[in-house]
Amino acid sequence: MLYFVLTLVLVAVGGFVFLPRFAKTAERNALGVNFILTLIATLVGVLVAINISEYSAGQAEKKDMIKLLNAAVETVDVSFDYSQALHEHFESLDEQTDITKLYHNNMPPLPSYLDDILVLPIVSKNISTSSLSNVVNLSILARHLVNTAEELPYYVNVLETLKKVLELEVSYQLGQLNEQQLELQSTDLMLNFSKSSGVTYKTNLPE
What sections of the protein cross the membrane (predicted)? Predict the structure, then answer.
């Protein structure tokens, strides 16, 4: 942005030479004016090149971030599918089955790869504040809900919500949602999660 502003300033300064009221002055100092215009043109060229380079780098970084976020979605999705299938299996068992033992022999996986993605600079500096907060809170909650079979339904709910939070962030990074839309949809998602799970979620919306 700074380079863009500087480019505009230099172009404006160079443009003064061509105004009628400065024509005679420009003629009297043709050599100096030509030198200044050449210098300005060179600086403008350099600044334009820097702008293009920064834009290209920013677009490449955003594309890489979206790939990482999609990888995070897949990671959570795998954990969700396994956990949901495990919960459905437990629901079909009779009361005499030792579910506690069965659970500890087949514990659902934590999407730990998600933590590795979040700490990458390309993600941590570009992800929206609301999504980062929700992902961190849900990840912490997931670790506390993976210990017993009784908590499995809540764990499944956390994973499902976590996946939706990440999908919203991907839509935001792709430009399909603006910041306000992301905030509203994220808030609705977390409030619905709170109602279905019994976990208190405090919004940042004014009362």
Answer: 33-53
